[in-house]
Predict the structure.
Amino acid sequence: MEKILHVENLHVTFTTYGGTVQAVRGVDFHLNKGETLAIVGESGCGKSVTSNAIMRLIPDPPGKITNGSILFKGQDLAKFSEKKMRSIRGVDISMIFQDPMTALNPTLTIGTQLMEGLRTHRKVTSEQAKKKAIEMMDLVGISNPEERLKQYPHQFSGGMRQRIVIAIALICEPDLLIADEPTTALDVTIQAQILELFEKIQDTTGVSIILITHDLGVVAKIADRIAVMYAGKIIETGTKREIFYEPQHPYTKGLLNSVPRLDLKEDRLSPIDGTPPDLFSPPQACAFAARCPYAMEVCDKVYPADTELSESHKVSCWLQDKRAKQLLALAPTN
Amino acid sequence: MLKYILKRFMIMLVTLWIIITLTFILMVNVPGSPFNSDQSSNETIKANLEAHYNLDAPYHIQYLNYLKSVATFDFGPSIKQPNQTVNDLLGRGFPISLELGLVTIAVAVISGIILGIIAALRHNGFIDYMAMGFAVLGISIPNFILATLLIQQLAVNLNLLPPATWSSPAHMVMPVLALATGPMAIIARLTRSTMLEVLTQDYIKMARAKGLSPWKIVFKHALRNALMPVVTIMGTLLAGILTGTFVIEQIFAIPGMGKYFVESINQRDYPVIMGTTVFYSAFLILMLFLVDIAYGILDPRIKFHKKGGE
């Protein structure tokens, strides 16, 4: 399969008065063409920073990509100038934001905002741009498009606005779509509609999608592969099936256990005890060790290397290290 | 929209009527008369004027007469300036005052907005601190102090500009500078703070994600939203500039309306007091109305009339 995006050893820091926050600390992942990768993790684990880093939208200062590469179709975006990056944004890579209520400019018509990207990057007449805009409005399921292009954002509901945001992101036919919590601000029925829209769009355009979310329900619905992030690192990646049925990292297991289930008779959910580490001075070894029920001495001292469990399934945990099994064999049995 | 404008016009007329009434009440209650300090008063002229204004009649008759003449745009002859009607004085003074006012507003708004944008884009940088330091000075120095300082430095010491009167663009520089600095500083500070707020909005990030140039992001996406509060305070600033012109016109000996306004009060020149007050108020009310209309044009969310549904 063709890799459209390959992020290697990405580091992002933010300089504040209180010190330097190491928001992303060596993230590796790749995305195949036409695939949906979900990046999941709790608030503050660096998933949004990672996606903003790919778009090079991290405000500098205070933010900075300190190390690593972002290979998009073989070119390293981390080394691009701001001007060169502008020709990538909205054309090759687009982004969808969390809150559709604030993502649209209240003083410009939907038509203006929709056609703007097209008219900036492609040589089109206003007639062609309008035709394309109407086509996009149709694609995302907004009826009466010609009429609605003249309206302002406040004349649309939240779900409709998110459809428009998606249309704006797709109008230049990008190869990669980054959706940063695209359904978090919507109510559940609208969520389902938007997720179906994503599936439809992927079928018709073949766009690759990175989906940033903390909602495992959303992941289960549309992701092909999943990357689990914790404290600025990816700790486990695998196909949807591997992560949901055979989670190996204790954090992934904890995350899945804290989702309410209809098939189990439990009164209470089981949360993961403790809090995420302070990213001003994150532990050099496994960041989850302090909260991990299976933590060993080595977990506090050395960061575990990736263990490949299958071609697609990788985990960073000492419990899965090849040598752990040998140790287990040495352990006295009683 | 048309219905809204008609309704506003009715309200404007009521406002004007209240102002006329209050001014009339104040005027007749101020001690003294236009003829008190008059040495050269001609008995015939005095008798004619008293007859014209019915000064012997009870106040309510005078008041009704006055309303009638205002309705026909006839403010009557001046008592102190012989052979001149109030309309003559307004016709001579108003164009000059208007010129001063408009140039001042243009300078204040344009330079204030530019200064504010630059300060916001160079947030917490050297230019930002310079601009905001300058703005604090501009707000805190009263215009008459600035005017005298300017005259002393630019006209007297350096001999660069004419110190007074109103005839060429060079004559405009100092009065406009003195009058515009305060409003400009206020606009700059406001533009900066709203601009900073707008620049952190999601739709700005979205505009960047579309790959737009910084220029387009600032002027197409940010500025229009940042200007709303500026438009809101424009009404107050206009009133400030208007009253500012009285003082500035006095200092620079500009033959505008302000001069007649102040003189008429000192001399108890009743028809001129009434005429200038009514004229100034009508002008200000009209400007405020225009500001409201501009607000609606800038922000499509503001509706002038209620429409069911949406």
In short: The mean pLDDT of chain A is 87. The longest strand of chain A covers residues 3-16. Chain A touches chain B through 32 residues (CB under 8 Å).
